[in-house]
Amino acid sequence: MEIEVKSQIGDELVLVVRDVEVPFINAIRRTAMMDVPKIAIDDVNIIRNDSAMFNEVLAHRLGLTPLVSDLEAIDGMEVADECDCGDGCSKCGVSFSLNAVGPKTVYSKDLISSDSKIKPVYDTIPLVKLKEGEELKIEAVAKLGFGKDHAKWIPTTVCAYKQYPEITFNEDVEIDYDCADACPRGILKADKRSKKIKVLDIENCSMCKSCYRASENKYINIGYQDNNFIFKIETDGSMPPKEVLLKACEELELKADKFIRFSEGGSK
Ligand code: SF4
User: What is the pTM of this model?
Assistant: First the structure.
């Protein structure tokens, strides 16, 4: 297997992964989305809510507000179900409070955390609008959880792969420049001087086949490489994409180890 970093901009990472099977790359994708622990607000106690927004909608918004969950921030934290305390403690939960009086727009920055490391990733996520004299008083607890239990614990906003595109030209028929004009992504450039169609950025090809359909004599063919992939991962800012991948690989390794132990001796 070969891995090449194509780009890393902010919370987005694009890799080219070569010489692997679909089940392998799909296992990484699913584990990154479902089995990487992340912090999100889980318990919400709404003491006062004079706004027009229903309590349930407000609680849902709080749950989906990304909180800093990188490895340093969650170091030493436990998943609530696995914590010895049984009733919530600083190891398995982080308290938040929110007090606001209108008129104002309440933003994510108004959530005050009991742990300076664990706070909203972005300050400017609007939560609710309060009119003159309206009050909002909330207490909440954020917990570690997994995407397989609720979308608020999914650290990725994009986690997808596609097989590496392959564009070939049929040299037995006349060159058909129409196929280049049909590409919505500007990947194909007709060069009438050199009597060629140039492929500018093959990794940006979506394999939509518009070019193939536009070519009456089927001058162009669109395919893909079976075992080479372009893998894109983007997070909601709660964790860097590299950390999500690292954690996903650790989780996958643990599962594989469990399976090996079971296969060897029947133990779990
Ligand atoms: S398959 Fe679609 S994106 Fe790719 S080159 Fe053809 S028209 Fe462009």
Answer: 0.89
